[in-house]
Task: structure prediction
Amino acid sequence: MVQTRKTVVSLIGVPTDAGASARGASMGPEALRVAGLRERLEAHGLSVRDTGNLAGPPNPWQPPVDGYRHLAEVAEWNRLTHEAVHAELAAGHLPIMLGGDHCLGIGSISAVARHCREQGRKLRVLWLDAHADFNTSTITPSGNIHGMPVACLCGFGPDELTRIGGHVPAISPKVIRQIGIRSVDEGEKRFVHQQDLEVFDMRYIDEMGMRHAMELALATLDDHTHLHVSFDVDFLDPDIAPGVGTTVPGGPTYREAQLCMEMIADTGRLASLDVVELNPAFDHRNRTAELAVDLIESLFGKSTLMRK
Result:
């Protein structure tokens, strides 16, 4: 099952790198547009509206304060993201949040969770990433908030971030499935274990295969489940996707990533999407953006053959 011709997809650009460890992810939304995201989705029969970019505070590029870098700026960008994503969901649209760094998952997913509470729907979040992003101010080695969004969504973080959307925690760790993980800080490992996050790391994928990992990650979805995908481009192996600020060797290959996206599309449940951490400053002739658009197409039903 794939999205129908009546599906309205809303692109929401959020051009900030205030939560990141390197400058440049703020240029990600435009790189995805240059790579033809809107046109490629429209070719699949989707109605696409580009809402443009949100306007928020600049990146001050300052050191951490009390374990957080740029907390005020990150909080404002996430508040803006929350409201924009929630408005599109309330209108019956499928929002694609174009980041920007992965701190923005706080605003986006808290909006999705709010929408699910209002609609009485269950939520499943697939977190495609090289990193667990489950740090807190006390265990972070850097203070960069793009390493904290999952923890904040689960209620572990400052009020400025955990209370976005008005419900603490925004989500339970039980709704998340993390896929492709291969870089977790030492204190973060213990915290992930304590909170019992369901993680399909690269060792699991090496041993069991992407198909088996995705079958488990997608298990028990039903008509009352809203499926959200948070796609950090550093999920991909840097050999095929160099345009990110935090490359980690040993990620999914092109074919593994395609299988991941196609199996998500096969569920017919995709209802919202983040695409984050694309950094054109580290890319080669927009190669990573073009790959990301290719994979997003697969999320919306592109396949080699018509599947039964």
